[in-house]
Amino acid sequence: MHDIKAIRDNPALYDAAWASKGLVAQSPPILDLDRDLRTAQTALQAAQSRRNDVSKLIGVAKGKKDEAAAAEYMAEVELLKAEIARQGEAEKGAGEALRALLASLPNLPAPEVPVGEDERGNVEVRRWGEPNAIANPKDHVELGETLGLMDFEVAAKMSGARFVMLMGGLARLERALGQFMLDMQTREHGYLEVSPPLLVRDEAAFGTGQLPKFAEDLFRTTDGRWLIPTAEVSLTNLVREEITEEQELPLRLTALTPSFRSEAGASGRDTRGMIRQHQFYKVELVSITTPEEAETEHERMVECAEAVLKRLELPFRTMLLCTGDMGFSARKTYDLEVWLPSQNTYREISSCSNCGDFQARRMDARCRRAGEKGTRFVHTLNGSGLAVGRTLVALMENYQDEGGRIAVPQTLQPYMGGLTHIG
Known about the structure:
The protein is of the alpha+beta class. Helix content is 41%, strand content 20%. The chain is elongated. It starts with a helix and ends with a strand.
């Protein structure tokens, strides 16, 4: 959500920022609606004030037995009632239209974010590890199906496309990955583990930016709740409509949950395998902090996500996303892309975003300095630490041998009962 006063003060700044994300100038309709709203509010207040004054004059006239004057004042009150109703409707209509327009517009990119239309404008920041030289690498689908531990057909029979059934060693490996990531983020990086709701109301999804613009990307229940597309929704809304004392910040929260996405905009993309599923597990990282510490916290969060890939010894690169490739709520985003031998390329496995006060304004989440009465909006950050399904894919492909077995990384072996290979 955006500050209308800030847009009034510097509309060119906002238009330039939105233009970098491919949008036409938005300040003209915003300021027109703002002008209509303030005009209606002024007229409404004037009519209400006059009605109050005239109502008093009616009493005075009646006290003087001046029925003619009283009748004139009463007639004016009736006209003022109609004017109040008319201006009230005008205020409501302009206010709702203005709020809807502001709610539909994405966050402004940070100044250091590169301008670009799509992923081709992203900038590589660093990379870690060297891809293994694997002769004729099999993809995770062939590996899993050959082992008899991954079945897309049986999942499709009960649920449709973009679902998978994992069994035996692969099911255990998926569970081990989630537990390892959660343990690492809580024990080593200081995140507080949370077991949040998987169903949320409209207000929660609006707060983090999924609603109203991206409703088609979500699954909705028959009672009007939404299945979370990421635990970011539940975790960030922990501070919704709250005032947090600044000495308690940063709040660092993590959760291992299923995530549910309709993938409405991904028709025809990654239809094979586990890269783009309707349901998958993910360890989410969320930080709530002050404006001054947000950038430092962002860099720290990226390092926490990178640490998982390093511990698993999976080659990856870190990308700074350009304006045209960032998410709706993000001010600045880093993507971690892991190496997939079967595709001979890097694929996104984590996005870590600094959202500034964009989500906080939508949630009315504030903080307060010790000894001060005034409040200000917190800054929110979120990232994957990591997407479990995609990590499983990367692990299978990078740890395969010529016989089709999957080696278990040493760091995961305690979670696998000492098992060193699957298959």
